[in-house]
Each structure stands twice: as C-alpha cells, then as structure tokens.
Structures
1.
Amino acid sequence: MKALTWQGKRSVSVEEVPDPRIQGPTDAIVRMTSTAICGSDLHLYEVLGPFMDKGDIIGHEPMGIVEEVGSSVTNIKAGDRVVIPFNVSCGHCWMCRHGLQSQCETTQVRGYNSGAALFGYSWLYGSVPGGQAEYLRVPHADYGPIKVPQTGEDERYLYLSDIVPTAWQGVQYANVPEGGSLAVLGLGPVGQFAARIGRHLGYRVIAVDPVPERRAMAERHGIEALDLHDGVAEELRERTDGRGPDSVVDAVGMEAHGS
Ligand SMILES: NC(=O)c1ccc[n+]([C@@H]2O[C@H](COP(=O)([O-])OP(=O)(O)OC[C@H]3O[C@@H](n4cnc5c(N)ncnc54)[C@H](O)[C@@H]3O)[C@@H](O)[C@H]2O)c1
Ligand SMILES: [Zn+2]
Ligand SMILES: [Zn+2]
C-alpha cells in the first residue's frame, strides 16, 4: 500500500510499504477513505523529530471502511463505516473506566512516562503506524472505533477522530459561566471548533489569531476575532468591561508566534 512516511526533519513522503495484517484477536484492518492533517503533526515535522524513525507512518485523524476484524471483535464488522479516535485505549482498565482514555493503562508508554499509545505519533506514544495510509491496523478495535452512518460526506464525521472532542472538552474544562465570555487563542482547526462550540453553548466568544483568513472564517460564525499584537491582552480587557474574559482556551500549542 501507499502511506505517508516521516523521512527526517521537515521531510515526509508517500512511499510503498507492506500492507498491515491482523496481529491479534482485538485488531481490525480499516481501508481509509479520509484522513485529516493535524496541528499535532507539525510537532513531528520538527520538534519531536528526535523521537521518530525514518519510515514511520504518520496520521491520527482517520476514517474508513472495515475490511477485516480479529476473532474477538464483535462491535464492528467488515463493511462498517468507522471513525478511529487518536487514542489507542482498551476500554476496561481503571483509567478507561474513569473516562480518562488518553491515559489508558493497557497501552500507556511507561518507558517515556507518556500517556496512552497514539496512532502515528513517535516512540513517545508507542510508534503505532498511523492513518495517512491506504490501510490502518487498529489495535483494541473491540473498543475504539466509532461506527457512523453509511450515508453523508466523510467531512460530516471525520473530525470526531480528534479535533471535535478536543475542542469540546477544552471548552468544558474552561468552565465558562452561563452566558459568559470565552477567549479562544489560535484559530486553527481546534480553535475554530472551540470558538463555534462556545457560540453553540451560548457564550460570547472573542478569538485571537494573526492569520486574516482564519479570523474571517471565525467571524462568519458570529465570533469576534482580534489580530495578534502587543496590546491584545488590553484589547480583550477593554471588550469585557475591564475584567477580561471569564474563561480562556489556548488552542495555539507548541509552535506559538510570540507569546
Ligand atoms: N487531543 C489533543 O490534545 C489535541 C488535538 C488536536 C490538536 N491539539 C493541539 O492543539 C494545537 C492547535 O491545533 P491546530 O490543528 O488547530 O493547529 P494550527 O497550527 O492549525 O493552529 C494554531 C493557530 O494558532 C495561531 N497562532 C500562533 N501563535 C499565536 C499566538 N501567539 N496567539 C494567537 N494565535 C496564534 C496560528 O496562526 C494558527 O492559526 C496544537 O498544538 C495541537 O498539537 C491537541
Ligand atoms: Zn490531531
Ligand atoms: Zn484502558
């Protein structure tokens, strides 16, 4: 099959690699129909390079059609359409039972003190081959994959793999008071979703991003959008009666421009 592989710092390429095969009873093989690129992939492209091997398959926002399942997978079957979450979690350990699947104790990469294994995400997260490929082996497929309807564009479901739940949970953790104000820093995919979720929940949302097209996209959805400049903190205070927004979501991440 063809897959997108990491070749070195700032270098990725599509290469011919062996097709994945079922290796254990809880595996599934999924034929990819869509896969997104994440801001998190940029970390691999540059800063996390020392933890990558040449040839690693990247990608963790995939969906597709189940081709084959292992003997103990009963929740999905060949032909089902599924979205695959970024985390590889077992569903039955203490962390999974407490809703902390990103810390799954079965797949946790203890050697690096990191959390649950992640698709396509370096030694730090288990070196699990990722989904920017024609086929993906999904470990713990008896728990992870989300079955979605057969109809509708992939784009309707794809973002369940990572950025919609990330943005939703970020807004939940921000604990915005009823009818309150929320600042969203960064208007990449995660920030766009966090801002729209904030509007959906009835909050006033003020976002900050240096890219005009990203601000314009947010403004089309009822979000106030500010350019990044030295006085932006003061501008946020001015727009909120001098007190500042009630809550903040940082959706910029590691490669911030300025502070
Ligand atoms: N499950 C998770 O925890 C999870 C999931 C997805 C993404 N992430 C992380 O969330 C972050 C955002 O992801 P993304 O895909 O939206 O990335 P992105 O790179 O597309 O977006 C980042 C945005 O921040 C803007 N920005 C840069 N510096 C800024 C500053 N100082 N102030 C305001 N805006 C600034 C950029 O212009 C860009 O629009 C990344 O760090 C990513 O790793 C985490
Ligand atoms: Zn992602
Ligand atoms: Zn678990």
2.
Amino acid sequence: MMRCECGEELRRIESTMHDCTVCGKYTNVAYACTNGHSMCAECVEPHIRARVKEICEASESKDPRLILDSLLSDDLIFERALRYHLIIGPALVAAYRNSGGDVDLDKALDEIMRRGSMIPAKACGHAGNCGSATSAGIFFSVIADTHPLKEENWGEVHRLTGKCLMDLGSIGGPRCCNRGANIAMRNAVDAVKDVMGIEMELNDAECHFKNDVCIGDRCPFHSKS
Ligand SMILES: [Zn+2]
Ligand SMILES: [Zn+2]
C-alpha cells in the first residue's frame, strides 16, 4: 500500500489536471488520498520502484512471464506502455536468481530500473528500437557484468537486443508492449541458457491481453480462445 504524506492511503484515480501535493507542479495526477491530496507520475515513481522490488524479491518463480504478470496485476504498477520497459528487466533478473543465477538481486534491481528509466517512451515507432529489447539488454548486461569498454559478453548483449528487434521487425506493427515483452523474455531466456548455462522457465504460449492495437493472428502469442 502506498501512503500519502498525511498518512492516508493513496489510490489510483482517473488521470486529471491538479496541483501535485509533493512537488507542487500543476500537472496530470493519477493518485489521490481521501483528504484530497494528489501525486503526479514523477513523484509516484519511487513508490512504484519500491513495489517492483518488493514483488521481485518475494517471488520464487523461475518464469519471468509469471513474475511480469504479478507486476502488471499490482494496483500500483498497472498496465501502462511506459512501465513495460521498466519491469521486463526486473522480472527477468528475479527469475534468473530463482533459477540458480548468481546475482545480488537487491543491487541488480536498482541498477536495472535506473537504466530502464532512461529508455525513451515510444522508442519503437520513433527510433526503431523497442524498449522491451533494451530492457532485455539491460538485464543481460547487468548479469553478465559487461560495460562499454569490456570485451567479454559485449557482443552477446548486442546479439540479444538485435535478435529481439529482428523478431519484432519481422512481425510488424503497430506496437504491442505485451508482444514486445514476450519476445524480449523468450530471447533473454535463450541467451541465459546459451551463455550462462542456466535454464529458466517461460510460459508465454497464449496472450490474453486484448488491447486496442492487437494484431490478432499476425501475433505469434495470439490466443484463439
Ligand atoms: Zn493525504
Ligand atoms: Zn509531483
């Protein structure tokens, strides 16, 4: 539960223009308490990150799709296009730890979300670089401990993001964050197996998200039911 500074619970509301009680900006607010205080997206961000960490650290699942679903069904995190690229990496690293991967989860989650928050919104259509692919790349870079000047695994990280983008490109648009997430996680799970020798689980057989940009049978995850 997220609390307002006055102590009351902060709940999600229909997005509306209002003064943010925390930073004072007149902007779109999406959370309010019963005393009429409201909070903007920027001020809510640290609370969302704390909640992502809480769910990921408590999870015992080896399947990043299951962890992603529990993040998406959380009232505080909820489904929003911008959130996907912040939570794919955390879901992957939690599943990696639960599959026997050697990682300091607390530190990794902070670093993955720090880097994830730098991915621009709408980078898929505006730059040909879906945030889901970058989120998978961030996860892999963190667990493989690579950086710009390192030889080891630098190429593997690029091959992972590249494979995600090739898969997305061959299916075509418009974008669906859930399809992007499934493709990113499938390729990340394969890369972890190939490079680290660690087997994670992934049940991405059927997508039940019916959003307004669903491409139906053109999507490999489209559910017939
Ligand atoms: Zn309040
Ligand atoms: Zn604010």
